[in-house]
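Q: My labmate handed me this sequence with no annotations at all. I'd like to see what the chain might look like in three dimensions before we decide whether it's worth expressing. Could you predict it?
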Amino acid sequence: MTDILESRIGACVSIRRRDLNLTQRALAEPCGVSFQQIQKYERGQNRVSAAMLWHLATALAVPVDYFFQDFPAPAKAAAASPKPGDRPGPGGA
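A: Here is what I predict for the chain of 93 residues:
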């Protein structure tokens, strides 16, 4: 099963690659991977590391955030509230 984010990143890679009229092989070369690996990224079958995301963005001439446009932002973590009996930290009341 593929993660929705991996599928979204893969779709963005595929769309941009086609917009630039690049083959999978032409994109794979500057990224240092095989064209089969590009296929797997585009299908969302393999996770894209942070370093590979940077290589893909560079090769496709887009900022890294291009792959996350229109993707919902993660929910902010709730601030941890003190539990009864917790001692205040340094400088606390």
